[in-house]
Amino acid sequence: MSQNLIDELAQPTLHSMQHFLSQKFEALGIETAALDARLLIQHAAAINHAAFIRDASRLMSPAELEMLRPLVARRIAREPISRILDKAEFWSLPFNLSADTLDPRPDTETLVELALELLPPKTTQTLKLLDLGTGSGCILLSLLSEWPAASGVGVDISASALAMADQNARNLGLEGRAAFVKSNWFETVSGQFELIVSNPPYIPTAEIETLSAEVAKYDPLAALDGGPSGIEPYKLLFEGAPQHLAPGGWLIVEYGYGQLEDICKLLEASPLGRIMKQREVRADLAGIDRCLAVQI
Ligand SMILES: C[S@@+](CC[C@H](N)C(=O)[O-])C[C@H]1O[C@@H](n2cnc3c(N)ncnc32)[C@H](O)[C@@H]1O
Fold first, then answer.
1. Which of 32, 97, 220, 224 has the fewest CB atoms below 10 angstroms from its CB?
2. Which CATH superfamily is domain 89-295 in?
3. Which of 113, 131, 138, 156 is the best mutation target for the ligand 1 pocket, counting ligand atoms within 8 Å of the beta carbon and taking the most?
4. Going by CA atoms, what residue is nearest to atom 24 of ligand 1?
């Protein structure tokens, strides 16, 4: 397909361009064709959804078409929309992304929901949270947005991911309650936390090249690679958690399809397993087990 696809349309309006691109994207098997088309047009025209609806019948300017051409070419090359726009929505909040941050997945909202269920709602307690492998900061910042008196630390091995998480905290007005620290899991973490959360990398190394191009090519390897078994990071999380959980505290981790049994074996053989009082498992919206919560 031509990279100048949009030039097939004479005198496009915002609306006719969206209709045209939706059809093209759909024919390529892009599931969110209409939404992607609108988001790219909005980005090229520097307008929001309300302005897109209000001005749907206005002609697109040559400058807007110029902006749109490469964006459309990138989407046709299967670059995810969040990478093209360098932003994503998670827990209904806006997050900026970089090449070193995972594109937050809707499934990970299961972890946020479970945390909100297990800890008191809208608590006025001064909860302390720790997010290991924070990436864009999406889990930590979503929880801080729900708990006005909580504060937290986001940890990552990638300095550049931490810089992006810090920028997201500032954009959301949460910078006073969120700190970001470079660490290999617990290595440089000090103190105790009422809640430790983590969505670690959990894809077995050998499987990474079998993932869809949208994941394998555009998500950072450090956010995907869970070592030969895929569950290596959990061993370190279960080893380090007892020292950093406050009495009665919870550790909540996300994991991948079919990994629960092996992760539970790791847990039972770990220092955390020995002091665990209870545990909970939650499925995501598709009914797939997604999160394990452990209380000491
Ligand atoms: C699956 S991503 C999760 C990102 C974000 N929390 C989310 O849910 O979208 C895993 C994160 O763990 C980080 N990571 C990988 N190895 C790490 C390590 N040894 N110590 C700390 N963070 C690590 C990666 O850089 C990445 O940001």
1. 32
2. Vaccinia Virus protein VP39 (3.40.50.150)
3. 156
4. 223
Take residue 241 and report the two structure tokens written for it: 């958690």
Ligand 1 pocket residue status of 238, Cβ below 6 Å: no
Rounded to an integer, the average pLDDT of 201-226 is: 91
10 Å CB burial of residue 114 (0-12, 13-18, 19+) is buried
Determine whether the shortest distance from the Cβ of 135 to ligand 1 is under 6 A: yes
Q: Which amino acid is at 186?
A: F
Give the contacts of 45 (CB within 8 A, at least 6 positions apart). 14, 52, 60, 61, 64, 67
Which stretch of DSSP H or E encloses residue 37? helix 33-45
Instruction: Characterize 74-103 residue by residue with b for buried, 16 or more Cβ atoms within 10 angstroms of its Cβ, and e for exposed.
Output: bbbeebbbbbbbebbebbebebbbbebbbb
Whether the predicted pLDDT of 1 surpasses 50: no
Q: Which two tokens stand for residue 228?
A: 């030969």
**Number of C-alpha atoms within 13 angstroms, CB side, residue 118?**
28
User: How far is ligand 1, taken at its centre, from the CA of residue 13, in Å?
Assistant: 42
Under CATH, what is the fold of the domain 5-77?
Answer: Helicase, Ruva Protein; domain 3 (1.10.8)
Q: Is residue 234 very low, low, confident or very high in pLDDT (cuts 50, 70, 90)?
A: very high
Q: Is 155 in the pocket of ligand 1 (CB under 6 A)?
A: yes
Do the domains at 5-77 and 89-295 have one common CATH topology?
no
What digits encode the pLDDT tens for the residues 138-182?
A: 999 999 999 999 999 999 999 999 999 999 999 999 999 999 999
Each domain of the chain, given as residue ranges in start order, spans 5-77, 89-295
Interval between CA 12 and ligand 1 midpoint (Å): 43
Position of tokens 């810089």?
163
